[in-house]
Amino acid sequence: MSSMRGALATMAIASALLGGVANRADAQYVMPGAPPQYGVLQVRGGVAPDPTVADGVAGGPVSLSGANSSCRGYAQSAPSHVIMAQSGLRFLAIMVNSSFDSTLMVQTPDGQVYCNDDTDGLLPRVEISSPPGAIRVWVGAYSSSGGGPYRLGLSNNPGIRAQQLGPPGSGGGVVVTPPPGRPPVVGGITPGAPPLFGNTGVRQGFQPDPVVLTGSAGGPIDASMLDSSCRGWITPQPSHVVMAQSGFPNLRMLVSAGHDTTLVVQYPDGRIACNDDGAGSLNPLIEGPTGPGPIRVWVGSYSSGRAGPYTFGVTEYPHVGPGHLVGGGGGGVVVAPPPQPPPQPPRGEVTMVDLQPRIPVTLFGPGMSSATFAVWSPRGGPRIEIVVTPAGPSLSVSARVGGNEIALGTVPQEIARDAVVTVTQQPNSTLLVRAERPPDSRRSDPGAQMLLSVRWDARSAAPTLVDQWSGTFSDRAPRWAR
């Protein structure tokens, strides 16, 4: 199958970013602006050494055909890798070596999408030319229940083929690991990736108790790769993130489902706990003390290739069991957590992303494990950092220019809760800042959105807010934002 190309429209990407963070167990979308699961590869002038390789685990719940009809396979919403091209590339071959039928989707900085399935047997290969900037790569599995370890290769040599890269985990080339500061990839999981089915925050004495979330169990990763005590099949990304806003002497996490499910939990101190049938009737339960911080949760299916809905609960009460978790497949009303102020962005690691026309960059969102700043270079202006920071229960959007910080707008509390904030450089070099809270049908919440239009004012030598709009999630945006 030859390489195929198509334009990924701006609106499609915006929808993708939103769909990837919505608390839903059905359709999933790609999130081009999310941090890559398996790191960033730098290419300066040419690939050196050639080939350069990086390892990862393919597969996930996202059908790549939803991003472009020519694409095949299933992957995670976040890119597997990002290739930072410091200059334009006349020829770059991107290929995958794996023991299963794998696929590729590549998005170049100009928004073009290239897809491939079977160039070298069952191994995909994409050959591109590219302007400078971020090249995003998704490695997929052809089957929704397939996947496994793979090796990605980059080369400027048309004669280099996937079989020459060696198997995943072997030597050869340069193996690129994820950047420091994020939870490490362990046994194929990516703890720092955004959760697939939403997050929640709890502190001692939280009410209502239990807090309930829903999702779909199962994935391509064998949980026993993490620890021999673990069972079932999980996704690389967490199913949920439970933000413990205080320590707990005993916090219980359990699942209710109509099929055999398993649990994997990573506590804030890095400990991993697993369970299969602790809550009875094939339902798992994990309990124990924890300090404050993010608790990452994977809900697995005991059988490979099996997926199905579940209800996940968090409780302090020792008597709460699977039968108390209303919602999901059990009927009733899901008990929603009380509104929480937006989470504080992580301190320490900061990812700087140069904006490219029509390519959204996510600056703030649930489950993000590193701070992201967008770098805007308007016509006739300097490099400007666009930053989103908490301001009490609200969010502040600002620009940093030459050591000065200029306020551009404030995301109000009603949108800041569970908000996703993206920034896009439009073709006319203006900026579109989009803050959105997805709808929640369980609470009859229509969702909300706010849009800011920013341009560079040469007279004042500063970025200037020129337009602003807000509405519900489904309201039609003004023309200047389309």
Describe what this molecule looks like in 3D.
It comes from Sandaracinus amylolyticus. The protein has 482 residues and is mainly beta. Helices cover 3% and strands 42% of the residues. The strands form eight sheets. A six-stranded mixed β-sheet has the order 1-9-8-11-6-2, with no helix packed on it. The chain has a five-stranded mixed β-sheet with strand order 13-17-22-19-20, with no helix packed on it. A five-stranded mixed β-sheet has the order 24-26-27-28-29. Residues 1-27, 172-187 and 328-348 have low confidence and may be disordered.
Q: Any idea of the CATH topology of the largest domain? A: Jelly Rolls
Q: What is the CATH class of the largest domain? A: Mainly Beta
Low-confidence stretches: 1-27, 172-187, 328-348
CATH architecture term of the largest domain: Sandwich
Report the C-alpha radius of gyration, rounded: 22 Å
Class derived from helix and strand content: mainly beta
Strand order of the largest sheet: 1-9-8-11-6-2
Q: Could you tell me the mean pLDDT?
A: 79
Global outline: globular
Distance between the termini: 34 Å
The major beta sheet can be summarized as: 6 strands, mixed
Q: Roughly what percent helix?
A: under 10%
Give the percentage of residues in beta strands: 35-45%
The count of strands amounts to 33
Indicate how many domains the architecture comprises: 3
Number of helix segments?
Answer: 2
Protein name: Alpha-mannosidase
Keywords: Signal
Organism: Sandaracinus amylolyticus
